[in-house]
Amino acid sequence: MMKQLDVCSNCDNEAVRVRGSYQFKESGLKNVVLQGIELIRCKKCGNEDPVIPRLNALMRVMVRGVISKPYRLTGHEVRFLRKFLRMTGEQFSHLMHIDKTTLSKWENDEQPIGPQSDLLIRALILVLGLKETQKDQAAIIQEDFPGIHNSVHDVGIEIDPSNMTYQYA
To answer: Are 42 and 10 contacting, i.e. CB atoms less than 8 angstroms apart?
Structure first.
């Protein structure tokens, strides 16, 4: 049996598989790091491509990490959650009963998201986006709501894709 050769997606040169951490910027979130995943690393240009296992499950873990964080949501987190629901800005703003310019200002961090809107977004994600989540997991996340601080902070989320768990960095 021949070993498959990996090729760099950037320069088409030979690449090797290694294990490491990967900042998952492609998710749309600034602070998500995948721990101990397989990476295809180019020997020549240094480009790294992640080999992401179980992408759908990983996205649900990321969503749970975002809606469970103990601080109000940031704009890029709201955009990530909206896209997770596969909604346009117009669809999501209609669902929230807000003007689409308000949503745009939230997502671009031009206007803070009020505490009630923050909780509504989290609740919508629980109902619409994580409906396949077991009720006990939803109850645990809802228990976190009273402890959410009124201040806004970017919080790093480190995810272990091997067991689909997360922790805050």
So the answer is: yes
Q: Does domain 55-156 have CATH number 3.40.30?
A: no
Domain boundaries, the chain: 12-51, 55-156
Bridge partner residues of 115 (DSSP)? none
Buried b (16+ CB within 10 A) or exposed e, 86-125: ebeeeebbeebeeeeeebeebbeeeebbeeebbbbbbebb
Query: By the 8 A CB rule, do 142 and 126 touch?
Result: yes
| Residue 83 token pair | 């896209």
Total Cβ atoms within 10 A of residue 18: 11
Cβ(36)–Cβ(19) under 8 Å? yes
Work out the average pLDDT over 109-118.
Answer: 95
Find out whether 137 and 125 touch, Cβ atoms under 8 Å: no
pLDDT range class, residue 56, cuts 50, 70, 90: confident
